[in-house]
Amino acid sequence: MEIIVKSLYSSEIRVQVDSNTTIEQLMDKVDKALGIKITSKSLFFSGRVLDKNRKISDYGIQNGNVVDLMME
């Protein structure tokens, strides 16, 4: 499935994942898409901070959903 990651500072990033992808793996995919390693970042979905040790399916994230990226 494809999800969209949006931040305040960059355009949309479209990332291919499956329901068993962890949030940490998603963060790694975002880093690769941006071409840099962001050490301080958080992902949010439906107003909740996503725990890096949980899976996308734990949050009910589905194809086409938007995940927000906050970078410091």
From TrEMBL:
Domain (Ubiquitin-like) ranges: 1-72
Chain coiled-coil ranges: none
PROSITE patterns xrefs: UBIQUITIN_2 (PS50053)
Protein name from the UniProt record: Ubiquitin-like domain-containing protein
InterPro entries: Ubiquitin-like_dom (IPR000626), Ubiquitin-like_domsf (IPR029071), Ubiquitin_dom (IPR019956), Ubiquitin_ubiquitin-like (IPR050158)
Domain of life: Eukaryota
SMART domains from the UniProt entry: UBQ (SM00213)
UniProt source species: Brachionus calyciflorus
